[in-house]
């Protein structure tokens, strides 16, 4: 029976399910379009025009916006771990469909959209080789700069502005095909692919003074503790001692933005991360005033007078969803924190002179949903 060693993603998990179902069937020889051993057929793979996803600057309820299609790969797979990959032409991407003439019907079809800088293979290959290529996909490619098109391009992307969330990698698989009325005497099978994201999104609001603080202002926001590649071979894990003078990469940090109010009409600090067991940390750099009679974690404060402070930090190291601690980041989900009631109330003991202090843990409540809004609660 076929067995996959790396069960890291929904994409790979889908492959495992597909092959387990087909494990008792004979494989096509490597180098031919992978199939199930049946007769020849015409075959078409189609994509949706607008998979369910979200905008960049604004937190949104469930809805659909058109993604940006940069490149598309399709893989036809059989029961013997054999895969044949094909790149789509610009015309096929524009039509959202690729047709194959007189091939053996595959066991399953897999599609990857927007692979970024990762080079995905074409031609005949093993499933292991395909998994290895997918492992090279980076988190940076899920956080691309805004792209603006003055006119529709050759791939059918309409004129307009495309934010990072519209450019993330999408994937889909199908092992059930419809049969359409033939027009040339040959059977036409069709695989309609529903696309989902392999990344998750964090939408981050602001913080506000709680008991013991007269004022609190955000100076910057940082994302830390996340995987850099889909294979989970490297990660960004700055500590209190290794925190850089200039934070990189640029997409993982934001300066203060007055539009992030955590009230009606708020904007958000937004970051895409790769799925897995590494829970991102959200760090706020803050300034403010400690109330008389209160002190920050390092002792800053006065019993009789308010005390101003600058260049201090709040580190969110965990999240709760419906009271349960979040232990895994799932793809195609949006995690929201601090987007209501003016932000997350902070007390002086959660403010430290350095980020990622080992003795301070802040857990925030969040909500989670499948490409829908889901609030989470931070824990300290």
What does this structure look like?
The protein is mainly beta and 380 residues long. The chain folds into 2 domains: 10-197, no CATH class; 200-378, Sandwich (Immunoglobulin-like). It has helices spanning 10-21, 90-95, 127-135; strands spanning 40-46, 72-77, 82-87, 97-104, 108-113, 123-126, 147-149, 160-162, 170-174, 178-180, 188-192, 196-197, 199-204, 207-209, 213-224, 226-227, 235-236, 253-255, 269-274, 281-290, 307-316, 318-321, 324-325, 333-337, 344-346, 363-370, 374-378. The strands form 7 sheets. Strands 13, 19, 22, 23, 24, 26 and 27 form a 7-stranded mixed β-sheet that branches. The two termini are 47 Å apart.
How many DSSP-defined strands?
Answer: 27
For the terminal residues, how far apart are their CA atoms?
A: 47 Å
Proportion of helical residues: under 10%
Q: Please state the average pLDDT score.
A: 82
Shape, please? elongated
> Major sheet: size, sense and barrel closure?
7 strands, mixed
The proportion of strand residues reads 35-45%
Strand-pairing-aware structural class: mainly beta
Number of helices: 3
Low-pLDDT regions: 1-32, 50-57
Based on CA atoms alone, the radius of gyration comes out at 24 Å
List keywords for this structure.
single chain; 380 residues; mainly beta; Immunoglobulin-like; seven-stranded mixed β-sheet; six-stranded antiparallel β-sheet; 27 strands; 7% helix; elongated
């Amino acid at each position: 029976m076929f067995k996959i060693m790396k069960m890291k993603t929904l994409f790979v998990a889908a492959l495992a399910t597909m092959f387990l179902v087909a494990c008792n069937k004979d494989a096509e020889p490597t180098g031919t379009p992978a199939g199930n051993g049946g007769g020849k057929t015409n075959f078409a793979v189609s994509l949706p025009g607008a998979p369910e996803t979200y905008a960049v600057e604004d937190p949104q309820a469930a809805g659909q916006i058109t993604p940006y299609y940069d490149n598309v790969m399709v893989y036809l797979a059989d029961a013997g771990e054999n895969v044949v990959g094909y790149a789509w032409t610009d015309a096929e991407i524009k039509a959202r469909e690729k047709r194959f003439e007189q091939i053996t019907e595959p066991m399953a079809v897999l599609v990857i959209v927007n692979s970024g800088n990762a080079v995905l293979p074409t031609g005949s290959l093993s499933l292991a080789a395909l998994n290895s290529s997918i492992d090279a996909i980076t988190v940076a490619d899920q956080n691309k700069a805004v792209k603006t098109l003055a006119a529709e391009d050759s791939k059918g992307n309409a004129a307009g502005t495309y934010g990072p969330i519209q450019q993330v990698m999408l994937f889909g698989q199908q092992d059930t095909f419809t049969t359409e009325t033939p027009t040339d005497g040959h059977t036409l099978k069709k695989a309609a692919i529903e696309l989902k994201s392999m990344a998750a999104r964090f939408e981050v609001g602001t913080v506000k003074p709680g008991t013991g603080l007269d004022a609190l202002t955000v100076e910057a926001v940082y994302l830390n503790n996340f995987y850099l590649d889909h294979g989970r071979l490297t990660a960004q894990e700055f500590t209190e001692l290794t925190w850089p003078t200039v934070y990189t990469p640029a997409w993982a940090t934001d300066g203060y933005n007055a539009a992030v109010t955590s009230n009606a009409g708020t904007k958000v600090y937004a970051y895409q991360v790769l799925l897995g067991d590494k829970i991102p940390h959200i760090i706020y750099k803050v300034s403010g005033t400690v109330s008389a009679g209160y002190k920050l974690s390092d002792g800053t404060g006065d019993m009789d007078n308010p005390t101003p402070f600058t260049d201090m930090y709040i580190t969110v190291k965990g999240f709760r969803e419906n009271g349960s601690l979040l232990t895994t980041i799932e793809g195609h989900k949006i995690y929201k924190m601090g987007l209501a009631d003016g932000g997350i109330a902070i007390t002086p003991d959660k403010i430290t002179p350095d980020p990622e202090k080992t003795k301070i843990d802040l857990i925030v409540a969040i909500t989670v949903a499948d490409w829908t809004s889901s609030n989470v609660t931070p824990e300290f």
